[in-house]
Amino acid sequence: MVGHLRNVHLTEFKGYDGGVQFRRRKTGVNADNLSVQLDHGSGGRATHELVEQVFARAFNNRFLREMNDSALVDIRGGHVAMTTDSYVVDPVIFPGGDIGSLAVHGTINDLCMRGARPMYLTVGFILEEGLLFETLLHIVESMATAAREANVLIVAGDTKVVPKGKADKIFINTAGIGIVPDGINVTGHNARPGDAVLINGTIGDHGMAILCKREGLAFENEILSDSSSLNGLIRELLEACPHIGVLRDPTRGGVATALNEIARQSHVGIRLYEESLPIRDDVAGACELLGLDPLYVANEGKVLVCLPQAAEQEALEVMRRHPLGRAACRIGEVVADEPGRVFMQTHIGGLRLVDMLRGEQLPRIC
Amino acid sequence: MKYLDEYRDPQLAKSLLDALQRRSLPKTPIRLMEICGTHTVAIFRCGLRQLLPPGIQLISGPGCPVCVTAGEDIDRAIWLARQPGVIVATFGDLLRVPGSHSSLHQERGAGADVRIVYGTLDALHMARENPHHEVVFLGIGFETTAPTVAAAVRQAAIEKLDNFSVFSAHKLLPPAMNALLESEDLSLDGFICPGHVSTVIGAQAYRHVATRHKMPCVITGFEPLDLLQGITMLIDQLAKGRAEVAVQYTRAVNREGNPAARKLMDEIFTATDATWRGLGEIPASGLRLQPQWHNYDASVRFAMPHIQVKEHPGCRCGEVLRGVLTPPGCALFGKVCTPQHPLGPCMVSSEGTCGAYYRYRQ
Fold first, then answer.
1. Are residues B103 and B145 both part of a single domain?
2. B50 vs A350: CB contact, 8 Å cut-off?
3. Which residues in chain B are closer than 8 Å to A350, comparing Cβ atoms?
4. Are both B183 and B235 inside the same structural domain?
5. A360 touches chain B (CB under 8 A)
6. How confident is the prediction for chain A on average, in pLDDT?
7. Adjacency order of strands within the sheet including B86-90
8. Backbone phi, psi, residue A20, to 5°
9. Interchain proximity B360–A352, CB inside 8 Å
10. Of A24-28, A109-113, A183-187, where does mean pLDDT reach its minimum?
11. Are residues B345 and B254 in the same domain?
């Protein structure tokens, strides 16, 4: 299909040069021509043109090029992991990423958390009538880059357009499949008393990047989202330490909620140490200002690891060698007491419960 | 974090705690009340209670504005939300507080226009943007919030924003402290006085509490070292048999408070008798708008019906607010009354004592 692109005439896309640039035509452009219209979701010609000119071009691969109703992919060896996630983050472009890169990173990371090697993604777009093509192209390009960097292919997709006001700019669903190599058994049920609890870097960056952007809060340096694909880091980690029991990405609900989930699934207690929690100064400051607890703020490039203490040093070294794990550290341990609960030893030596997030702390964070 | 980490230093905290542990107490138990909900949460968050010597007890007081708002005021807010053409602007904490038959949250689900704001200026903005709607701001809060509401009323008058009004259920803390000390079922040895409120009213506002009731008062900050130092200062006073107003939180609070904020409050509001949940009616413990600002007073603009309040029969928030009951002593606590399904306001608010007990499991 991509081979035929030059033969397709498209008023809306005439200025699209295949990259992130979208230039207005010099004369007589109706502003409507620069934005998504209901026609683009009709399933007819405009939809085809949109798919061919934007999505197929950006996600270009042999599976997509077949343009059949579903993609046939090769899966061999091990268990197949499947997952899906929808993304509604507001704003759609934020410091350190956008809804497109997030939709790729998030689903890849969900696969990684079972020890899977992500291979293929599908993507569904719900576009609001009037969405600027400039924004759409930025997001699609960023998805393509994120997929390429993580070495996964986007093999199928769908687009719907809803009338203005029925969605907010763009919602994206991605689903993914990956292969879990033999011998790997990673699940939230595997935490054992005595295990160390590690994290690959600072907490709360994504949530505070979104919130500061929304609230117009400025600090000396802009807080960037940590949105990233963890498959490279996890692969190295599992190769070095195949006996890792639990991997969990602390997204919505933050580290506190993710650890509570593990404690419940594994019927163990978890003890955190406040002084060990890695939190950037600006994130800590923004949280103080807004009355938020960084333990409950979302992350999109972090992984919590529970593993036997004997493997702790090696795991930390592997993570610290990777660009996404430079600030890896131990933040706590798994204990037999108080199964299903997470406690934290505070700076001054007190002990307090760290409960799950209750209610919605920050709507539309991912 | 500069200006915060200094007040969380583990070594200094340990030495202050050691000193408290070593010291022979003038009496036991020493019962100190933290008035302010922000203190309650700060104490729970750092796990301070369990680190103190057993002879020093901390008791949570009525310092959560949402919690002390009377049931009839909650019902009136709900009534306002039901009026056609009215937008109710409120701080988020109030949303889930149960009234007699409903909550603002439920009303919103049923179609009422209830919007959360982070400050009074947001509500003013809403009034400008919606000239054909009545915007009613729910004025719930202590002396910290009241000046900002006063400023909004004055600004609305300057701009002639005639669709903006305030439903004032503001409360004043020192009269409530006096009322607490006059109640017979509570014995106290000192007050950890609120930090934020005191930035406005100043240390002088507690003179009456300290002298008339011979009650040591220390205005205290919110970090662990602030709290430890404040407690130490209270015990020093008790040991010397003194009862005076001292300021630990000197980086924010002085004797006079904030004269500009107080002047603004005096210009717009006047003190009135007010009903507190748990404490009943306390003379001159609330704020209403002065007659010349009646255009901006929702209780004048709207002909509110008389409301018969119906509260959950088992709810013991009133006793919790007076400090005579700790939340686990309530049969509903943690069983049928939880943050997801709160039956009383102390479980709803982020600064409520029941919510803090539940979240941090003390």
1. yes
2. yes
3. 46-51
4. yes
5. no
6. 89
7. B113-116, B86-90, B134-139, B164-168
8. -85, -10
9. yes
10. A24-28
11. no
